[in-house]
Design goal:
This protein is mainly α. It contains seven helices and no strands. Helix 2 packs parallel to helix 5, helix 4 runs antiparallel to helix 5 and helix 6 runs antiparallel to helix 7.
Length: about 180
């Protein structure tokens, strides 16, 4: 029996190493990829692309780099794949998209507050102008300035009611400036 030696050890080692190799290969971060895509799309839909474009661009750049990295890893042999970089890029894209939404909300709140203040000031200016207008000649340039200011004021109120707070701020600012010009 000395001539037949069984060598189960190399076969066992090969089986264990293949099992460990396949178990060690993590699945591709598809869930993180779609979470990042959803976050970037949500940031765009909430208006962050116009209010915080640099944040949305950074999120999109991270998403694109993560997709490129994922594609690069998927072209490798299964046991040679490492998804940590693409996972980090997808996480960065998600964080940046959320930051874009936060920045957008903050800017929108600031615009809303600014528009309210400017509309209130312009309204007060029209109230003051109402009692002064009794003394203004009918064909005076002051009356035309006040008329232009009233048009800007009406536009600002309409924009505010539509939720266009940034544009409402600009229109209310114009109304205030036109009223100032009338004085």
């Amino acid at each position: 029996m000395g001539y037949m030696q069984h060598r189960p050890l190399p076969g066992l080692l090969l089986a264990v190493s293949l099992t460990v190799g396949f178990v060690a290969c993590a699945d591709a971060p598809i869930r993180q990829k779609y979470a990042a895509k959803t976050a970037v799309a949500a940031a765009r839909e909430t208006g962050a692309a116009t209010l915080a474009p640099q944040y949305v661009e950074a999120a999109q750049d991270s998403l694109d780099a993560g997709i490129r990295e994922l594609d690069s890893q998927l072209r490798r042999m299964r046991w040679n794949r490492n998804y940590s970089r693409s996972e980090a890029l997808f996480a960065a894209a998600t964080r940046r998209a959320e930051a874009a939404q936060d920045r957008s909300r903050r800017l929108l709140d600031e615009s809303r507050t600014r528009a309210r203040i400017l509309l209130r000031r312009a309204g007060e200016g029209f109230e003051q102008m109402a009692w002064v207008s009794v003394y203004i000649p009918p064909r005076s340039s002051i009356r035309s300035d006040v008329s232009r200011a009233r048009g800007s004021f009406t536009q600002a109120k309409n924009l505010f009611e539509q939720g266009e707070f940034t544009d409402a701020s600009v229109a209310a600012q114009h109304a205030s400036q036109e009223l100032d010009a009338a004085y």
